[in-house]
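TA notes, week 10

Several of you asked for a full example with nothing omitted. So below is the full record: structure tokens for the whole chain, then the designed sequence directly under it. When grading your own attempts, check the secondary structure regions first.
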């Protein structure tokens, strides 16, 4: 839709209520030798529509909390024995309280499937994940990260204490599962206690490894 504006010498507007065309006149002195009818300049003014308003709604996803737990303990075995013992992933359920099974993939030995089962906070807790062992540093560091399932990562570091003893430091980082979000503040100290118990059992297990 558009409005047409026509100008001549007069300033009297010729506008009727029933018409959408507005006519305004300009001075004929600009065109002194031409008849009035030939001095009419016609041009169109576009009638623009008001801009439309768009509302964009963004779906927000909850930001999950990550927690870190670190425990360490002196073990009365040589550092090479402690390292070899911890490298035996499928034996970990024998001394870590909450790990029920670890299975190494036959065709990909750096990958392993883990299962966690434990009763805590008035419920039976079960999780699983696929973990990849990263490139280790012999007698110094073992570290991993989950590829699917429960998001977690961690590292075990070994520090020599003497010819027949060492310090084992275990760090585990994990995303708080939504199931346990209501008890997130209590989860970290609870898991640190479990990890410490695990290292105590590991110390006994390593002596007979």
């Amino acid at each position: 839709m558009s409005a047409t504006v026509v100008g001549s010498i007069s300033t009297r507007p010729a506008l009727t209520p029933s018409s959408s065309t507005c006519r305004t006149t300009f001075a004929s002195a600009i065109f002194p030798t031409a008849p009035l009818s030939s001095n009419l300049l016609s041009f169109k003014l576009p009638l623009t529509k008001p801009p439309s308003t768009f509302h964009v709604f963004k779906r927000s996803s909850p930001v999950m909390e990550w927690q870190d737990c670190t425990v360490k303990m002196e073990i009365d075995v040589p550092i090479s024995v402690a390292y070899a013992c911890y490298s035996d992933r499928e034996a970990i359920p024998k001394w870590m309280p909450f790990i029920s099974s670890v299975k190494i993939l036959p065709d990909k030995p750096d990958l392993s499937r883990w299962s966690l089962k434990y009763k805590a906070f008035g419920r039976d807790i079960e999780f699983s994940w696929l973990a990849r062992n990263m490139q280790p540093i012999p007698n110094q560091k073992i570290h991993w990260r989950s590829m699917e399932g429960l998001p977690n990562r961690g590292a075990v570091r070994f520090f020599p204490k003497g010819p027949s003893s060492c310090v084992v430091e275990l760090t585990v980082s994990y995303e708080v599962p939504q199931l346990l979000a209501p008890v997130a503040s209590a989860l970290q100290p609870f898991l640190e206690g479990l990890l410490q118990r695990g290292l105590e059992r590991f110390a006994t297990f390593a002596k007979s490894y």
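The chain has two domains: 2-46, 66-207. Use that as a sanity check on your answer.
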